[in-house]
Write a structure and sequence with these properties.
The protein is built from 6 helices and 3 strands. It is mainly α. The chain has one domain. A 3-stranded antiparallel β-sheet has the order 1-2-3. Helix 2 runs antiparallel to helix 3. The longest helix is centred in the C-terminal third of the chain and has 42 residues. It is elongated.
């Protein structure tokens, strides 16, 4: 149990540190106007201060976002603690789910710290490949957003797999029960054939 707790803590700590360090260097080295092209027409680094949520939603809603994200993170941490206490991490997929939720917690904490400390989130990752392919600008993000996106997608995939597995298991149980009922049902006596009855007469 302690090992799982330690692994969760280490994942959050490492990812959160990487996010905050990358934001620091992006803010100090890129500035407001400069752009660094990492891969031409694919990936660039351009510093931007985002006072809202993802894709510019909830613009200038600092207090609401801090409270909302704080509540969500607290709920996630409580769920992870419950998962550990009940030793559900021993079930198939349990450790995978913990890793995914640790990524979500790290991402949420990274952006929450920015909002509390600065009043905005420091973004710098610009996926220029989206404009190259679709002629549309994609929202600039940071490592915390990447953690959140990957974590949420993996959790969603896990839940879909789990639901499909439980549905298949339920069908199998019902089929076994039906087959058992059929095998245990008393067989009806074979009726006398009309021709045989006429001969007896």
């Amino acid at each position: 149990m302690m090992i799982v707790l330690l692994v969760d803590f280490l994942i959050v700590a490492v990812l959160l540190t990487a996010d905050l360090v990358s934001k620091y260097y992006a803010a100090s080295m890129l500035g407001d106007d400069s752009t660094y092209v990492a891969i031409k027409k694919v990936l660039s680094f351009r510093y931007q201060q985002n006072t809202g949520a993802a894709f510019g939603m909830f613009h200038d809603a600092r207090v609401f976002l801090c409270v909302f994200v704080g509540i969500v993170l607290l709920a996630l941490v409580c769920f992870m603690g419950y998962h550990i206490v009940k030793k559900k991490y021993r079930e198939k997929g349990g450790i995978f789910l913990h890793v995914c939720m640790s990524m979500i917690v790290a991402g949420g904490l990274g952006n929450l710290i920015d909002r509390i400390a600065f009043g905005y989130v420091r973004d710098f990752i610009d996926y220029t490949v989206v404009y190259t392919l679709f002629k549309r600008h994609f929202a600039i993000c940071n490592l915390a957003d990447v953690y959140l996106t990957i974590g949420v997608i993996l959790v969603a995939c896990y839940l879909i797999w789990l639901i499909a597995k439980e549905g298949k298991k339920g069908k199998t149980v019902k089929q076994v029960a039906a087959d058992k009922e059929v095998s245990q049902a008393p067989q009806e006596a074979n009726p006398t054939h009309p021709e045989e009855q006429s001969k007896d007469d």
